[in-house]
TrEMBL record:
Residues 1-25 form the signal peptide. It comes from the Bacteria. It comes from Pseudomonas cucumis. This is Spore coat U domain-containing protein. InterPro entries: Spore_coat_component (IPR053167), Spore_coat_U/FanG (IPR007893). The keyword Cell cycle does not apply. Keywords: Signal. Residues 23-160, 187-324 form the Spore coat protein U/FanG domain. The keyword Signal applies.
Amino acid sequence: MQFSDRWPGKVIGLMAIFLPCHAYALCEVASTSPAGFGSMSSIAVRTTLQTSSTTHAGLSCTGSLASSLASDDHFYATITSATAGVVGPTSDVIGYTVFANNSTSYPITRGVAFDFARHSIIDDLGLLSNPAVAKAVPIYLNTIIGSNVAAGIYSETLNIFWSWDYCHDYGGGGSCQGRDINSGSTSLTVNMTVDNDCTITAPNISFGSASVISSFSTVTGQTINLACTKGSAYTVGLDDGQHAVGVGGRRRMISGSNYLAYDLFKSAGTTRWGSVGTARRASSDAEVNPGNGLGTGSQIFNYNAKIYLDQSTPSPGTYLDSVVLDVGF
């Protein structure tokens, strides 16, 4: 205590109090934010890596630390689930890998504790660096290519057990005066929607050339190959082309202002293959692998094409048409 006699007859006491400055941070287990892969076709799921993430994997911290985490500090996350990936309506499973950051350097194995304090992950996130803002730990997900699955909504619930132990209170000389030691569990929902889709192989048709209509022959042995989503029941339609006369009328090729009528028929028969109602073909009507879609295997539809012989021979030229094939689920 210091005394001063600046003013006669008065004694003023001044006391200087010095308190140690503590840096601290506190963490807690909180509700997560769902991770969604979004909506995509079954073909994309099978052939292309899909990514997702959650901004909040259940661990939230506030406060600040005077230095980076020490080697004896840890933030363990143990992820478990009753399934091995997101599960769909027919029990198909789409597998995926969980990562501790937005690279593939640190995968998290299910059932094995992963320490987010290592590899500078917690420090790089700035999880303990701002006393005014609560920050959460994100995690990242990549699908495993190769899943041949049915369409539908897929989901999985991950259980995440967090356990941490770190110094949150440093005293003079950098010694630890208090540790935050705690644990807790939370759950994270992962979801994806798979849509029906097909890959289509439909070679062009050539009738060849002839000087008169009666010389054109029926083109046989034509095939359309479809590989559609596993378990999907679908129909296949061929529209009337660009120059047909009326709906369901004869298809026509064009050269200049001249037309050449032709048509496409189911299998090896004479039933016209069209795009409306019973003129379509069902997946169960395929010549090869009839039934619902196989996903990775092809279903083959045979057809034949012929030029109508009851028309006058048009002017010489190259006659063309374009027919649209559609698949309805």
